[in-house]
Amino acid sequence: MARVVSKNLFDFKPSGKYDDGVAKLFETMAKRGSTPEAKLVKDRMKELVQREDEAANAEFLTLLRAQMDAIVPMINDDPVYSGVAEKIVTTSFTVPTEHDGKFDVPVEVYTPKAVEGDKKRAVYIYAHGGGVVAMDSASMRKPLSKYAADTDLVIYNVDYRIAPETKCPNNIKDFYEVIKYAHVNAENLGIDPDKICIGGDSGGGYICLGAMVLLAQHNEGDIVKLAVPGIPMTDDYCFSDPLAMTVEERKECMMMRKIWKHYIAADWEAQKHDPHLFPGKASEELLEKFPPTIIMESEFDMYITEATRLASRLRRAGRLYEFVVIPGSPHGAGFFSGMKVYDLYWDTMNTIAKEYMHG
Fold it and tell me: Whole-structure pTM over 0.90, yes or no?
């Protein structure tokens, strides 16, 4: 593959501190977590994250899922999404798979009314966040609907199976199969086979990267116009010495160790060097076959070091368009409106749609 040529559209300077709006968001979340019940849960999770027995892993997962589910209304109930539903048409389809039993992967489709009649539309295939162990596609329904309306992209919101009920590599294969299905059936779906883009955030960023590994292994990287893994879980940096980590990495490393080792991996010892589990460990030969990539990151993300390392390797492999780091932002702040980092994040994503996905 020929080396990609960046348009060098983004050159944000790190601020070295949280955005003022982020501080207020943290205050709101702290108040929610200050009840006696919330403190008990927090203390219990601190205890459970240190243990590796089956009972502790099961209880920790239950509490973690409840914690993540509680965030969803904070996103989807935001007034910024009012009126978006009237600008799009929502449909759905399923993609049949057999890599882990027979399973039809659900895909929700958001088509902007402005391009509803077009036969060759750009499509963005998206994997939701939640650490691969929580949430579902519905958690991102409103933000993705707005993104479709704002950019004239058709968006496929993929409800891939989560861990530990479905283990690596079958989660990433769910997403990969949707990409392949879109490519093969582009004409019937009314999409442009030359404008298939993929992405995801956090755990969904990992799902996106894992699918990129599969595409590279099958010499299919060229069927994707652009990949945009955001704030992605990338490699096993969380297992390194916490003293060398950023504050955010150190705070979450024990949780991430548990997620990788006990929930996502099917066989930790057999898979810990496998790029299906850790896409950041893909060889140079595989990276050279990746789709053109833009990595979206946040200055204070808990995956910033591993994402930066992968960006450097992709740049050398000639597959990186841009490495975008939103200054002053922690993990996921781009999904909470009323902050400068929110506006900057979505302005950036809109520019990516215009300049790299449509262009």
Answer: yes
- The DSSP-derived string for 64-116 is HHHHHHTTHHHHHT-GGGTTGGGGEEEEEEEEEE-BTBSEEEEEEEEEEGGGT
If you ran DSSP here, which 8-state letter would residue 270 be given?
Answer: H
Cβ contact 340:19 at 8 Å = yes
Distance of CA 49 to the CA centre of its chain: 23
| Cβ contact 208:229 at 8 Å | yes
Give the separation between CA 285 and CA 317, rounded to whole angstroms: 8
**The tokens of 65 are what?**
């899922």
The Cα 197–Cα 230 span in angstroms is 13
pLDDT digits (tens, 9 = 90+) for 171-215: 999 999 999 999 999 999 999 999 999 999 999 999 999 999 999
Residue 348: its H or E element: helix 340-352
Around Cβ 338, how many Cβ atoms within 10 Å? 12
DSSP state of 137: G
Rounded to whole angstroms, the Cα distance separating 204 from 276 reads: 14
CB distance 155 to 175 below 8 Å: no
3-state secondary structure of 336: coil
